[in-house]
């Protein structure tokens, strides 16, 4: 496959992921951003400010691993969060970011992070083969300074390299995978588990009310 076919194929996958996520209410009002690694080593990423449920081929552009635009378009405001993951994990082929209700609610209910355990759906995450597993999803304070936020995430991943995703408080979540499909499966599993954990928490809190 030549480089332009590869870019076209990855772009089509990102466009499909955007439609799927928007249909579920995870990327409202131009929020979210998506990327995929190209065979050339460059990264295909959404142009900043585009509606992620209605992406067209020219809404996907190329950046290098440092996040520098390679074609004159303005990449996602959160490009550094994507490229830092590609730099860290050689096997990562796609990164997805959503502003989903479940992740935002979870960041309010569990500001110190979430512990996911005893869920069969954990097996949708990479390397997990049993519900008898503990997966920690960190919650980082939101920050408009992408260098600072990326440094905080990187510092965490240095210590927890198996982390499958993270939440940014009041903002949304990031997850990644070997392919766009894998990253989308991780997003769907995490969003489902965020929702379940928030509901379980409110039921427990309700039980405690006089
Ligand atoms: C309207 S959402 C604010 C920006 C944001 O958090 C986001 O995910 C979308 O930014 P982008 O530059 O990637 O369009
Ligand atoms: Zn965002």
Automatic annotation (TrEMBL):
HAMAP family from the UniProt entry: Salvage_MtnB (MF_01677)
Cofactor annotation comment: Binds 1 zinc ion per subunit.
Domain of life: Bacteria
GO annotation terms (biological process): L-methionine salvage from methylthioadenosine; monosaccharide metabolic process
Family annotation (Pfam families): Aldolase_II
Membrane-spanning segments: none
Function: Catalyzes the dehydration of methylthioribulose-1-phosphate (MTRu-1-P) into 2,3-diketo-5-methylthiopentyl-1-phosphate (DK-MTP-1-P).
EC numbers for this chain: 4.2.1.109
Protein family: Belongs to the aldolase class II family. MtnB subfamily.
Reaction equations catalysed: 5-(methylsulfanyl)-D-ribulose 1-phosphate = 5-methylsulfanyl-2,3-dioxopentyl phosphate + H2O
Gene Ontology molecular function: any one: zinc ion binding
InterPro entries from the UniProt entry: Aldolase_II/adducin_N, Aldolase_II/adducin_N_sf, MethylthioRu-1-P_deHdtase_MtnB
Essential cofactor(s): Zn(2+)
Encoding gene, per UniProt annotation: mtnB
Keywords: Amino-acid biosynthesis, Lyase, Metal-binding, Methionine biosynthesis, Zinc
Sequence ranges assigned to domain Class II aldolase/adducin N-terminal in this UniProt record: 12-198
Binding annotation for Zn(2+): 97, 99
Pathway linked to the protein: Amino-acid biosynthesis; L-methionine biosynthesis via salvage pathway; L-methionine from S-methyl-5-thio-alpha-D-ribose 1-phosphate: step 2/6
GO annotations of cellular component type: cytoplasm
Residue ranges of coiled coil: none
Higher taxonomy: Bacteria, Pseudomonadati, Pseudomonadota, Gammaproteobacteria, Chromatiales
Name of the featured protein: Methylthioribulose-1-phosphate dehydratase
């Amino acid at each position: 496959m030549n480089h332009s076919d590869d870019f076209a194929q990855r772009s089509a996958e990102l466009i499909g992921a955007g439609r799927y996520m928007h249909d579920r209410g995870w990327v409202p009002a131009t929020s979210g951003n998506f990327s995929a690694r190209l065979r050339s080593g460059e990264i295909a990423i959404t142009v900043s400010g585009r509606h992620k449920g209605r992406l067209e081929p020219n809404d996907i552009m190329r950046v290098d691993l440092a996040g520098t635009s390679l074609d004159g378009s303005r990449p996602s405001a959160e490009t550094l969060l994507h490229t830092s993951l590609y730099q860290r994990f050689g096997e990562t082929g796609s990164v997805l970011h959503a502003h989903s209700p479940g992740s935002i609610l979870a960041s309010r209910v569990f500001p110190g992070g979430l512990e996911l355990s005893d869920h069969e759906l954990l097996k949708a995450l990479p390397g997990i083969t049993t519900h008898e597993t503990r997966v920690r999803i960190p919650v980082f304070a939101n920050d408009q300074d992408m260098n600072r936020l990326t440094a905080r995430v990187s510092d965490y991943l240095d210590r927890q390299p198996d982390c499958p995703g993270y939440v940014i408080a009041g903002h949304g979540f990031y997850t990644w995978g070997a392919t766009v499909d894998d990253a989308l499966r991780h997003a769907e599993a995490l969003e489902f588990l965020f929702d379940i954990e928030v509901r379980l928490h409110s039921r427990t809190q309700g039980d405690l009310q006089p």
